[in-house]
Amino acid sequence: MILRSIQPGFCTTFAKKRIKKGHKSMHPLSLKFYFGDSCGHCRRFAKTLEKIEQERANISVSKIAYNPSQHPDIKFIPTVIVFLGNKELGRFSSALAKKDIDNWLHQINEYISDYLVKS
Fold first, then answer.
1. What are the tens digits of pLDDT across the range 39-59?
2. What DSSP designation does 112 have?
3. CATH number of 29-116
């Protein structure tokens, strides 16, 4: 099964097995949230990310003020990039619903368990 990004063209695409129901493994993830002060979607989306950070002990969110000259790889705001250590696992550029982000983070944890972490 191929997992595609929530927003095709904005996210990493990766191949993985079907999600195993009930799998509880959680890996420490770092989310970098690029935002703009004048961006209304960014302000609303920041609240969603705060809720996710509070609910998930394995998630840490860093808010980074977007500057086009300092961040040429960021094309749109809001943008969230997910890291495991120094390795980028995916990104999306949209103020998504919390439910969609939760599902996506679950899929990333499954991918880590299946392909990146040796038992």
1. 999 999 999 999 999 999 999
2. I
3. 3.40.30.10
